[in-house]
Amino acid sequence: MNLVVEGMTCGHCVRTVTQAIQAVDPHALVDVDLSSGVVKIVGQLAVEQAVEAIQRQGYVIAAALPFRGRHACGPDRILLLRRMPPLRPREGC
Q1: Which residues have CB under 8 Å from 25's CB, separation 6+?
Q2: CB–CB of 30/16 below 8 Å?
Q3: N or C terminus: fewer CB in 10 A for the chain?
């Protein structure tokens, strides 16, 4: 799955988001692109689990994008989420 995450600016943000996902799915592969804000996740967790894990760290999820590749499932589509505020305020980097 690919998530567009707002508010990531540095290596600390990359580690925080990666650790949040891997706390839910320890074997998940996570790739964070700071310039685009896209977080690519390959693992066993559901979109809702990934969104909640990242929101709990204080980030805003703007969208879930189609994933093309070996692990892609379902139709190609873009799932626009309500721009949901984080579940807790993000602490500065």
Answers
A1: 43, 44, 45, 49
A2: no
A3: C
